[in-house]
Amino acid sequence: MDVIKFSQKTKQEAERLLVYGNIVNILSKHGKVVLSGSYRYDLMWGPDIDLIVISDKPKVASYDALKDFIEQRKFQKYQLGDFINFPLKKRPQGVIVVLILEFEGRKWEIEIWFMKSLSEDDRYFKKLLSKVSPKQRKAILELKYQRDMDGLSKHQLDSATIYKGVLIEGKTNIKDF
Q1: In DSSP terms, which residues pair with 36 in a beta bridge?
Q2: Average of pLDDT values for 141-145?
Q3: Is residue 104 part of a domain?
């Protein structure tokens, strides 16, 4: 498996999905849009896209954006999670909207976080991932591939753990996690 080519193919699909759903245009009406996660850093593997919308009123912005997406009727499933009123330790303080759609043969999830500012984790990973070498990129993608082959979910071994393992600890084997 050529992990670099597969990652590039996944990102191209993601770009087409973003256009199909008019996602960035809709979100731009509700705050400052930040493309994040594996999409931003060319580390895509699975069919998911992470975005952040910075807004002074994240609850209102998330509800209004969700309404816009529902009215356009381009997604199969819509979810909303309130982590402002119902905080969890491993989740940022914000509201998440998730759009789900079978697109080009794969089930895609678009996770959109509405927050007042970038979380500490977002700032940390922005700094950490901004200088990934080609060798590190390949190691990360190979670990994501191995995670899939071993049947591990992203909840069992998340991308953030892989990024830290490769970039900070120099891990290159799935068994080291």
Answers
A1: 50
A2: 97
A3: yes
pTM for this predicted structure:
0.92
Range of the domain at 162: 131-177
97 and 155 share one domain? no
User: Are both 83 and 58 inside the same structural domain?
Assistant: yes
Per-residue pLDDT, 17:
98
Residues 10-31 have pLDDT tens digits of: 999 999 999 999 999 999 999 9
Residue 3 has pLDDT above 90, yes or no: yes
Q: Are residues 89 and 11 in the same domain?
A: yes
**Is residue 64 in some structural domain?**
yes
- CA-nearest of 128, 122, 140, 119 to 168 is 128
Neighbour count for residue 121 (Cβ, 10 Å): 12
Q: What is the CATH number of the domain that holds 53?
A: 3.30.460.10
Query: Is residue 124 in some structural domain?
Result: no
Give how far Cα 88 sits from Cα of 99, 158, 174, Å.
21, 17, 28
Residue 92 CA to residue 111 CA, distance in Å, equals 13
Q: Say whether pLDDT at 154 is over 90.
A: no
147 phi and psi angles, rounded to 5 deg? -55, -45
Q: How far apart are CA 142 and CA 136, in angstroms?
A: 10
